[in-house]
Hints:
Strand content: 35-45%
Number of helices: 2
Order of helices and strands: HEEEEH
Distance between the termini: 21 Å
Strand order of the largest sheet: 1-2-3-4
Amino acid sequence: HFLLSQGIESKDKDFFATSVIRSISQKGDNMYQNFKVTNVAEGESGFGGQKYMIVDFKYELLTGAGFEVDRRGVASITSQGKAVEVLWCATTRQRYKKLEPTLRDIASSFRRYTDG
């Protein structure tokens, strides 16, 4: 996560791209290439009107064996205070069509609660 100064729903596509890239690259910056956000939509609001954005994306995963694997994914992004939180899920391009409904269910189920 990182810090946010405005509501999540007011952010542009570049903000969401940066958020997902930071998530998928936690093991290292040279694990992916050709990252692209393909869609951003407002998801269902959570408790207390908490906003969630659903982000569709694609990229090429660079494996340790030197292969490039086309990946497709869905992320749910929200903010609590100034922190941004991301839950992302992805699969290979070949399996995406079959798994897309499940990935969307997983991403849409993400909820972030404050203490109390």
